[in-house]
């Protein structure tokens, strides 16, 4: 657990092409030297895939086999592209283009638009949601904030899967996609959104790909020009390619096969955006002569972490699972993963914060610790717990480092000091580079000790502290470095989006943590209903949730903590249980087969009276069945919930709490116990069902005609996210 050194942050550029290959293992070397024909790299988590492909490009360039300007490496995030550019620069291959699909397509679109279409390219919008709202208004369809977000996601999915509005309903049905509104309404909103966009001369990010594809398909002269520029392609995270991105890649390639793809089907976690591992899994079929290299030596995680990761995938099902890679740890043994159960979420957050504080006190850098969760809504409680414990933190997914206002101002101050430092009294008594940087940044708000608490002031300080740490590492690597040299380094890093390390604990969703790693990882909220998430219904969706947990586990190098809470809030009902994905893996648990519908092969249906007592036959009523597993229900509480007590709940807990608050008011008004309004079980059933109308509400056991007439309007208003009419019960 030491600070970054010369060898890691600022390595020397290899002297020769052969020196580029130094330090690669046999499989990585095989990737680096396979420079001809199609190449498919199946790379497990932590196996050094980015190292392998960047050394491959650098070796080809340094050996004179590849021209830097003829190579296009594409990936999916600006951060990943920036990291790739940074590594290539350190290997002496700085002229290679490493971009996201959208960035590469946008450059081509901007260049060729005047020639292919004429005039200037329509303005690119950053966010669709306002246009979707305008389209909904034009269609006279009311959408709340959540529905706006969901409809926007459907439009994005449609475009990356190359589905036009008229085909949306059929495409959604074919793929088993659950529409947030009626498919016909989604199709109408999608068509109107496209009309509004065209009418205002706007394009969105998906249009960038679609329009580039259209130009390359229709204008063979332009396609030939692009192909003469780029003759060798590398695609990272190939399991996340959408049909639209694959179409663009095919057009870039033409009839050539100078293509290297890298991916891991077991890390496919973005199918909701249209990503599919099929292109990776079918690569050998499309390219029978391809070289296939498997990377399974895990250099990131300890054997104990790798054992858990392999165990998770051993229970997986489906096509991606059939191609899983069995990782082999290359590290020394470490501690076993820690599993912790808490009574409620605040206790879980406080427990994690205490352990993190102790780890930092023992010498673990805060930047080497992460707290990972399934949804962004889980972040706030952990932010507060860390702030209360005096632990610095940063949020992933926030504004990019070099775009932060305080970083831009600091860069300007350092640039000015580098040019006019001789006239700056701040620098009169300082000689070495780190001291100069500290002196300059003290004028921008940096202090030797961090400010207390959390919030914007602390975040600004952390940004400036990251620049101070970078200056220290830079000076250690380059003894004679000047302030001007550091400014040049910062400029190069800004261009590559190669951010320095911020010294704080990372809080991140599992999706945003992909591609990152830490010495210590806390996986929190690993309970049924959150992992897998409640809306994961199909086998494919459940398996993607398993892969998401696998991604979380494989972010840890040495220490891994897995935790869950039995209830949401203190004093709440302890009705949660650990994630099914941990069955057979955590101590004291056993592997359990998933429930099957009653009556299915191998399933057991416990009919009425099956306990051996008197059989009570009901001839006039269909037996109540669990809506999750199909088992016949006999317990009154379970019949109200319409599911078994131990089956996963898909309850909207925020709605449940609002209903409980409303019930307390009604009970106080009537002078009766709260259960006389509605029982807890009935409120839970309402929060799970979220009825839209009186008919759906009436079907929930425990409502009844009298309560429907008295409370139905209030309950439906709360379910719709509205405030109940307080005047209704004033009498």
Automatic annotation (TrEMBL):
Q: Which residues bind ATP?
A: 43-50
Q: Which UniProt keywords apply?
A: ATP-binding, DNA damage, DNA repair, DNA-binding, Helicase, Hydrolase, Isomerase, Nucleotide-binding
What are the residue boundaries of the UvrD-like helicase ATP-binding domain, all occurrences included?
A: 22-302
- Coiled-coil region: none
Molecular functions per Gene Ontology: 3'-5' DNA helicase activity; ATP binding; ATP hydrolysis activity; DNA binding
Has keyword Hydrolase? yes
Q: Where is this region: Disordered?
A: 567-619
Q: Name one Pfam family in it.
A: UvrD_C
Named cofactor requirement(s): Mg(2+)
Q: What is its EC number?
A: 5.6.2.4
Q: Name one GO biological process term.
A: recombinational repair
Q: Which CDD domains match?
A: DEXQc_UvrD (cd17932), SF1_C_UvrD (cd18807)
Domain (HRDC): give its ranges: 649-729
The biased composition feature labelled Gly residues covers 596-612
GO cellular component, alphabetical, reads: cytosol; DNA helicase complex
Domain UvrD-like helicase C-terminal intervals: 303-558
Q: Which family does it belong to?
A: Belongs to the helicase family. UvrD subfamily.
Protein name (record): ATP-dependent DNA helicase UvrD2
Q: Which organism is it from?
A: Streptomyces fagopyri
Source taxonomy? Bacteria, Bacillati, Actinomycetota, Actinomycetes, Kitasatosporales
């Amino acid at each position: 657990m030491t600070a970054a050194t010369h060898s890691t942050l600022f390595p020397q550029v290899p002297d020769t092409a052969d020196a580029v290959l130094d330090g690669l293992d046999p499989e990585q070397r095989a990737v680096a030297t396979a420079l001809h024909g199609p190449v498919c790299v199946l790379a497990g988590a932590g196996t050094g895939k980015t190292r392998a492909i960047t050394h491959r490009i650098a070796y080809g360039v340094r050996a004179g086999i590849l021209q830097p300007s003829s190579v296009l490496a594409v990936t999916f995030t600006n951060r990943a592209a920036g990291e790739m550019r940074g590594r290539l620069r350190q290997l002496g291959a700085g002229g290679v283009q490493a971009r996201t699909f959208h960035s590469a397509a946008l450059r081509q679109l901007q260049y060729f638009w005047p020639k292919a279409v004429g005039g200037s390219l329509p303005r690119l919008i950053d966010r669709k949601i306002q246009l979707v709202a305008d389209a909904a208004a034009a269609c006279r369809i009311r959408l709340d904030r959540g529905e706006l977000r969901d409809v926007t996601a459907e439009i994005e999915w449609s475009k990356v899967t190359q589905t036009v509005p008229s085909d949306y309903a059929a495409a959604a049905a074919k793929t088993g996609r659950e529409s947030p509104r009626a498919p016909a309404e989604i199709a109408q909103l999608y068509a109107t959104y496209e009309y509004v966009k065209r009418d205002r001369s706007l394009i969105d990010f998906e249009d960038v790909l679609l329009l580039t594809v259209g130009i390359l398909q229709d204008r063979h002269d332009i396609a030939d020009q692009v192909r003469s520029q780029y003759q060798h392609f590398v695609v990272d995270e190939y399991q996340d390619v959408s049909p639209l991105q694959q179409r663009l890649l095919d057009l870039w390639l033409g009839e050539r096969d100078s293509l290297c793809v890298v991916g891991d089907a077991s890390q496919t976690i973005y199918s909701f955006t249209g990503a599919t591992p099929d292109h990776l899994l079918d690569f050998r079929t499309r390219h029978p002569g391809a070289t296939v290299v498997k990377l399974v030596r895990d250099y990131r995680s300890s054997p104990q972490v790798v054992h858990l990761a392999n165990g998770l995938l051993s229970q997986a099902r489906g096509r991606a699972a059939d191609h899983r890679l069995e990782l082999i740890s290359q590290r020394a043994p470490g501690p076993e993963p820690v599993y912790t159960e808490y009574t409620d979420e605040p206790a879980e957050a406080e427990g994690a914060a205490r352990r993190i504080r102790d780890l930092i006190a023992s010498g673990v850098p805060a930047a080497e610790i992460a707290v990972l969760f399934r949804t962004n809504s889980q972040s706030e409680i952990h932010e507060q717990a860390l702030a209360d414990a005096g632990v610095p933190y940063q949020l992933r997914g926030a504004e990019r480092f070099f775009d932060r206002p305080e970083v831009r101002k600091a860069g300007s101050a350092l640039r000015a000091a580098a040019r006019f430092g001789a006239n700056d009294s701040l620098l009169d008594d300082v000689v070495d580079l780190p001291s100069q940087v500290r002196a300059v940044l003290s004028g921008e708000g940096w202090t030797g000790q961090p400010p207390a608490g959390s919030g914007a002031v602390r975040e600004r300080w952390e940004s400036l502290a990251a620049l101070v740490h970078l200056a220290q590492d830079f000076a250690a690597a380059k003894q004679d470095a000047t302030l001007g040299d550091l400014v040049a380094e910062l400029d190069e890093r800004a261009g590559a989006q190669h951010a320095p390390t911020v010294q704080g604990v990372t809080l991140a969703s599992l999706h945003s943590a992909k591609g990152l790693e830490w010495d210590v990882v806390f996986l929190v909220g690993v309970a049924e209903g959150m992992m897998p998430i409640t809306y994961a219904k199909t086998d494919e969706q459940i398996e993607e949730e398993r892969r998401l947990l696998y991604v979380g586990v494989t972010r840890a190098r040495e220490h891994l903590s897995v935790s869950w809470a039995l209830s949401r809030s203190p004093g709440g009902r302890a009705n949660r249980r650990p994630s099914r994905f941990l069955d057979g893996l955590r101590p004291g648990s056993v592997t359990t087969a998933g429930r099957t519908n009653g009556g299915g092969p191998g399933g057991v249906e416990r009919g009425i009276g099956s306990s051996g007592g008197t059989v009570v036959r009901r001839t006039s009523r269909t037996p109540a069945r669990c809506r999750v597993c199909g088992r016949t229900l006999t317990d009154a509480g379970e019949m109200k919930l319409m599911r078994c007590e131990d089956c996963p709940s898909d309850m909207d807990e925020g709605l449940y709490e609002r209903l409980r608050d409303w019930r307390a008011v009604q009970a106080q008004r009537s002078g009766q116990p709260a259960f006389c309004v509605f029982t807890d079980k009935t409120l839970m059933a309402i929060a799970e069902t979220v009825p839209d109308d009186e008919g759906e509400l009436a079907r929930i056991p425990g409502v009844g005609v009298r309560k429907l007439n008295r409370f139905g309007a209030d309950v439906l208003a709360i379910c719709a996210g509205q405030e109940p009419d307080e005047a209704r019960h004033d009498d």
